[in-house]
Amino acid sequence: MPSVKIVSRVNPSEDPEKVSTAILNVFPDAVIETEGGYARGESRSLDNFGLMIRRQKMLDTTRAVLLRGMSGDRTRFLLNKQVAFAGKISFCDRGQMLGPIEVTVTDEGIEALIDRTAPGTVDGVEVRD
């Protein structure tokens, strides 16, 4: 079972509840605590994330991001906080004005987890071994 750690800065101009909502839109089972200018959460599932990337038809992009962020038994990626609040996925870099949602996924079989979450495609159709 994967461990998904989620962190986002809560800027003074932001409503902490909205930052929590952005996280929960992507990881609905996350338990979130907001303190010290940060919202931190932990989830045990990438199921909703996987459904969202399929709905948005972004398997290949997601796969590339997850593989690029892989190191050892984990992968890291950044999500656009405002887009997540709207219930969608958009990957970003650290240069976001309000800051990103930082996600770290740890699993002993991280490559297999990436294969299940964001399998490769051929002509837009999932390819599974």
Automatic annotation (TrEMBL):
Leader sequence residues: none
Stored SUPFAM superfamilies: RL5-like
Entry's transmembrane regions: none
Matching Gene3D superfamilies: 3.30.1440.10
InterPro entries: PAB1135-like, Ribosomal_uL5_dom_sf
Name recorded for this polypeptide: Uncharacterized protein
